[in-house]
Amino acid sequence: MHDQVIDPTEPTASCPACGRAHAADELRVPLPSAASVGTLGEARTAIDGLDAALATLLERRAEIAAVVQRLKPVGGHAGRDPGRERQIVEAMAARAPSLGADRLARIMTAVIEAGLDAAADAAEAPR
Ligand SMILES: O=C(O)C(=O)C[C@]1(C(=O)O)C=C[C@@H](O)C=C1
């Protein structure tokens, strides 16, 4: 899958995830529709592909969130910003209406807290 940026202008020969050529710092994900999956196996294959993309995005999000913690005057759990978290959830709710803001808030609270925990662990780890 795509990881570090080498040269964003240089297309990969063939992406192992989608089979097409595109810049190495892009994630292109097939988006199977619910209507396109008819069997349990097809549905699980579709979920596995989406989860692989989600994991890639979550890993990259945690890396960026760790940078934010170093840039803020007060980082980590002590620097939680509920207003910013609400803004994130509201923006996501516009893209995920069937989940809605309340369920997305549960998801994003877990994502944000996991990111803060990972950043704290990385900051404590010997270099
Ligand atoms: O934007 C910030 O201030 C962050 O620290 C990042 C982040 C996030 O992971 O998105 C984490 C904690 C805050 O409560 C809000 C958002």
From TrEMBL:
Which SMART domains does the annotation name?
Answer: CM_2 (SM00830)
- Coiled-coil residues: none
Q: Where is the Chorismate mutase domain?
A: 34-123
Provide the protein name.
Chorismate mutase domain-containing protein
Q: From which domain of life does this come?
A: Bacteria
| InterPro entries named among the record's database cross-references | Chorismate_II_sf, CM_dom_sf, CM_II_prokaryot
A Pfam family this protein belongs to?
Answer: CM_2
